[in-house]
Amino acid sequence: MQSAVSVKDLKIAYGDHTVIEKMSIDIAPREFLVLLGPSGCGKSTLLNAIAGLQDITAGEVWISGKNVSWEEPKDRGIGMVFQSYALYPRMSVRKNLSFGLRVAGLPKTEIEARVARTAALLHLDTLLDRRPAALSGGQRQRVAIGRALVREVDVFLFDEPLSNLDAKLRNELRVEIKKLHQRLGNTMIYVTHDQVEALTLADRIAIMRDGVIQQLASPAEIYRRPANLFVAGFIGAPAMNFIEGRIERGDAAPVFRSNGLTIDLSGYSFRAVAVEGPATLGFRPEHLVLDGAASSLPTIPGRVSVVEPMGSDAVIWFDWADQSLSLRLMGDVTLEPGDAVAPGLDIAKASLFGADGSRL
Ligand SMILES: Nc1ncnc2c1ncn2[C@@H]1O[C@H](COP(=O)(O)OP(=O)(O)O)[C@@H](O)[C@H]1O
Ligand SMILES: [Mg+2]
């Protein structure tokens, strides 16, 4: 199947500062791909290169089977939505939506039909005669999305479109964007530094660091089987717990040893054969079971330092060997600071990383 968007051996440098070094990625038609990573890792640079707003140093960009590496943005068949949307303040919503189409010289009836379709899709029908000043932040951002949608192209690029909105509005528009994608079935490339947006919206997430894709996989795969320590630490809130130690050959199966702790690894699926040596054990707060002894799991004994109720669940922080570890509990919590706990670890769900940080 022909990719909707392909980036081939892309390199982008500002003088001798290389931001992206030889990146390749294929995005399937109808796919929702999220580019996720910390600020400054090159997400916008990559998106702008796909859009044609950024010169590339080497490599190629293909859209719908065509090499567009040197095409103007307007000829690439894309629609783009930015974080800081500049609407035309003196124009009505209707004019804001139709402006690009009028400049492109589309027939009046076609413009009217498209504006009507887009307005209906984004619940802007009753706002068409208002100016931006008379709209709320969320409504303005919907108009900005609408300006991209009226182009009726196959590929939409979003660069942190919700970052400027408050939390409630952000959650609402996130759901709207997901519905929009389900209804339109376009290809979407969506940049964010927000892991919740990435996990909830994406078919696949490309998680980036310093211009390099660390892992490209479904949200579930990235959450359950992070490819390296960076991905493991970036995704999840509270963050994954990490314990430094060593993998050693046990009597029957390999074991992980750290600070008096010995954990049988027979339930862990190694990518390759387990080798002895330094390693980091990573586990999420929900991978601990409060009553470790009853569950016959290996236990990590400690003392509760903080209880954080979160509504539907609670996060319990406990001290073990000079470290603060977290454990997630559903339902009501009767624990208090100072209580002794011995949670059990479900090793089948945990992650092990080697000395170079990659998943074992
Ligand atoms: N015009 C520019 N000149 C020099 N360096 C730039 C320029 N634009 C961006 N950069 C650098 O490129 C890197 C990636 O930036 P950017 O793509 O905006 O990151 P992100 O969108 O992931 O936050 C950063 O280190 C930034 O400082
Ligand atoms: Mg950016």
Polypeptide structure, described:
The protein folds into 2 domains: 5-233, P-loop containing nucleotide triphosphate hydrolases (Rossmann fold, 3-Layer(aba) Sandwich); 239-353, OB fold (Dihydrolipoamide Acetyltransferase, E2P). The chain has 9 helices and 21 strands. It has helices spanning 43-51, 93-103, 108-121, 137-149, 167-184, 195-201, 219-224, 229-234, 292-295; strands at 5-14, 17-27, 32-36, 58-63, 66-67, 78-81, 155-159, 187-192, 204-209, 212-217, 241-249, 254-258, 261-264, 277-283, 288-289, 302-309, 313-320, 323-330, 340-341, 344-345, 351-353. The strands form 5 sheets. It has a 6-stranded mixed beta sheet, sandwiched between helices. β12 (254-258) and β13 form a beta hairpin. α2 crosses α3 and α2 packs parallel to α4 (137-149). The longest helix is centred in the middle third of the chain and has 18 residues, at 167-184. The relative contact order is 0.11. It is a peripheral membrane protein. InterPro entries: AAA+_ATPase, ABC_transporter-like_ATP-bd, ABC_transporter-like_CS, ABC_transpr_MalK-like, ABC_transpr_MalK/UgpC-like, Mo/tungstate-bd_C_term_dom, NA-bd_OB-fold, OB_MalK-like.
